[in-house]
Amino acid sequence: MGAVKQSVGKKSMVSKVRFSARDMAQIAVFAALIAALGLPGAITVGFSGVPITLQTLGVILAGAILGARKGTAAVTVFIALTLIGLPLLSGGRTGLTALAGPSAGYLIGWIPAAFVIGLLTARILPKYPLALGLLINALGGIVVIYVFGTIGLLLRTDLAVWASISTNFAFVPGDLAKVVIATVVAKSVHRAYPGLITK
User: Fold this and answer.
1) pTM above 0.85, yes or no
2) Residue 59 to residues 5, 7, 26, 38, 160: CA-CA distances in angstroms?
3) Which of 4, 51, 135, 173 stands 20 to 30 A from 166 (CA)?
4) Torsion 123-127-131-133 (CA) sign
5) What is the Cα–Cα distance from 154 to 173, expressed in whole angstroms?
6) Who contacts 187 (Cβ-Cβ below 8 Å, separation ≥6)?
7) 109 φ/ψ angles, rounded to the nearest 5 degrees
8) pLDDT digit string (tens) for 7-26?
9) Cα 82 from Cα 180, distance rounded (Å)
10) Chain centroid, CA 128 distance in Å
11) Other CB atoms closer than 10 Å to residue 82's CB: what's the count?
12) Helices 104-121 and 130-138 meet at what angle, rounded to 10?
C-alpha cells in the first residue's frame, strides 16, 4: 500500500513538472522573442562594461505573460542556448562570454526575475490592475536583476560596493520604460487570452 502511495506521489510530481505541447510552444516563442530583442544590438555605458539591451524587456514579458513556471523555462531555454555557443545575446555575444565578464550577474538574474514576476502576476489575475502590474514588473525586472547584477560586478570587477550599486543608475530610465511597455502589453494579453497563467 505504501509503495502504491509513493508511486502515485511520484507521478503527480512528474505531471506538475511536465509541459504540454502548447506550453512548449509558448516557451519556444518567448525564448525566440528574447533572442529577437537582442538584434538591435547593445549600448555600453560607463566604465563597468555592462551593456544596455532590449532583451530584459523579453524577460519581463515572459514572466508577466507566461507565469513563473513557463516564463522561467523560456528564459532558461534562451540562456542554455547561449551557453552552448549560440551568439543570441545583444552584440552577438554568447552566454560563456557574458558569464566571463562584468554582466554575468545580470544574465543570471534574468531567471529569478522571470520567476518572481510570474509568481506575483498570478496573484493579481484575472483583473491585472496596472498599478500592481507595474510594481511587480519593476520588482522583478529591475530590483531582482540589479541585485544579481551588483553581486556580479563585485565578483567580476574591482569596483567598490557603492560604485557597483551606482552603475545601475544609468539603466534605470530605460528599464522603467521597459516595465511600462511590458505591463501594458501583459494587461492586453491577459484580457484577450485569459488562463495563460494558472495559479
Assistant:
1) yes
2) 39, 36, 14, 12, 28
3) 135
4) positive
5) 23
6) 128, 130, 133
7) -65, -15
8) 444 444 444 568 899 999 99
9) 27
10) 19
11) 22
12) 150
Q: How far, in Å, are 36, 37, 102 from residue 91 at the CA level?
A: 12, 11, 15
- What grid cell was written down for 103? 554582466
Residue count of the chain, please give it.
Answer: 199
The 10s digit of each residue's pLDDT in 169-184 is 989 999 999 999 999 9
Q: Which three three-digit cell numbers place residue 140? A: 522583478
What's the one-letter identity of residue 57? L
